[in-house]
């Protein structure tokens, strides 16, 4: 186990560096300069700004300098949105806001999604199963900004039951968390139902039924554990996505989190912020994939880590 984890961590570091390099090169491939939007900037001022932030050097040199600084813990400073403020400070300031919303979205999406998936599988072919499948299909098909906008209009503007912006109290988390977790909830419900239908036809489930075990015990204790593998696989990237902030949801509800700030940095072409946020998301994704592999072993002890084409 330890050898496998170390191997995956080494690969993870290499993957993050590759992602950082590709992001840097693609970002700089866009024509123009982030300082072109400044009104009345002369050629001399433009050259001075590019020299100040090291953007006057050849692209390979810029990439090397960035990667060296990144390895040393320096992700540069903001050049547009919060000039000369450390990117690390900005991320650590915005990240906790996104985490708060993301955690609540994750909790309800996973809990409700698994329960609905189990119910749909248990009542396969009945009215409840049909209703749940329709809800799950609609939830997967509808874009997140539509869900967020509908919630904002109905509960925020028309009924005036919930705050429409910011995170001033627990009520402020309800709409953003629901909008952010609605698609994952529906997708998890579909995954759970499909996996559960495969599991409940296995021989050991038939044996449990023949012994007269309670149906709820069979579903939620014996069948559920073995049907969670696809859900666990999905949870890796899902957690990384939710805790770094839903770009659309944070923009619609004016939440001052990392997702909304990332959108603003792209619009303003604040390269260091774009790089720092992208690397953070990539790091979380890679880490969560390693965690998922380890959780596989916990969920199903038959899985051998580090063997069979890892």
Describe the structure.
This protein is mainly alpha-helical and 310 residues long. Helices cover 74% and strands 0% of the residues. Helix 10 packs antiparallel against helix 13 (271-299) and helix 12 (258-268) runs antiparallel to helix 13. The mean pLDDT is 82.
Give the averaged pLDDT, no decimals: 82
Number of helix segments? Answer: 13
Structural class determined from secondary elements:
mainly alpha
**Head-to-tail CA distance between termini:** 13 Å
Order of helices and strands: HHHHHHHHHHHHH
Q: Major sheet: size, sense and barrel closure?
A: none
State the share of residues found in helices, binned by percent: over 70%
Can you tell me the overall shape? globular
Low-confidence stretches: none
Radius of gyration, in angstroms, nearest whole number? 24 Å
Strand content: under 5%
The number of strands is 0
Quick tags:
13 helices; about 300 residues; mainly alpha; single chain
In short:
The chain is mainly α. It contains 13 helices and no strands.
How are the secondary structure elements laid out?
Blueprint: H1 2-29, H2 43-52, H3 59-71, H4 87-122, H5 127-141, H6 144-158, H7 171-199, H8 203-210, H9 215-227, H10 229-243, H11 247-252, H12 258-268, H13 271-299
């Amino acid at each position: 186990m330890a050898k496998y984890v170390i191997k995956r961590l080494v690969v993870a570091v290499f993957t993050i560096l590759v992602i950082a390099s590709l992001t840097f090169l693609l970002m700089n491939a866009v024509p123009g300069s982030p300082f072109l939007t400044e009104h009345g900037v002369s050629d001399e001022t433009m050259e001075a700004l590019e020299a100040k932030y090291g953007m006057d050097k050849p692209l390979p040199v810029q990439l090397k300098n960035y990667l060296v600084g990144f390895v040393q813990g320096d992700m540069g400073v903001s050049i547009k949105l919060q000039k000369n403020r450390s990117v690390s400070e900005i991320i650590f300031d915005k990240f906790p806001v996104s985490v708060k919303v993301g955690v609540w979205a994750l909790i309800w999406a996973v809990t409700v999604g698994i329960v609905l998936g189990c119910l749909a599988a248990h009542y396969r072919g009945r009215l409840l199963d049909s209703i749940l499948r329709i809800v799950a299909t609609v939830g997967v098909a509808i874009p997140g900004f539509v869900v967020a906008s509908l919630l904002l209009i109905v509960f925020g503007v028309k009924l005036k039951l919930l705050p429409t912006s910011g995170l001033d109290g627990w009520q402020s988390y309800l709409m953003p968390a629901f909008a952010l977790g609605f698609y994952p909830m529906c997708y998890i419900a579909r995954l759970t139902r499909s996996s559960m239908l495969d599991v409940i036809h296995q021989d050991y489930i038939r044996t449990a039924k023949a012994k007269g075990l309670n149906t709820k015990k069979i579903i939620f204790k014996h069948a559920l554990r073995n049907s969670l593998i696809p859900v666990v696989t999905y949870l890796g990237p899902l957690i990384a996505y939710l805790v770094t902030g839903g770009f659309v949801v944070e923009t619609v509800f004016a939440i001052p989190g990392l997702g909304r700030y990332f959108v603003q940095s792209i619009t303003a072409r604040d390269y260091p912020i774009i790089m720092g946020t992208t690397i953070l998301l990539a790091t979380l994704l890679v880490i969560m994939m390693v965690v998922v592999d380890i959780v596989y072993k916990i969920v199903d002890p038959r899985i051998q880590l580090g063997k069979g084409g890892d």
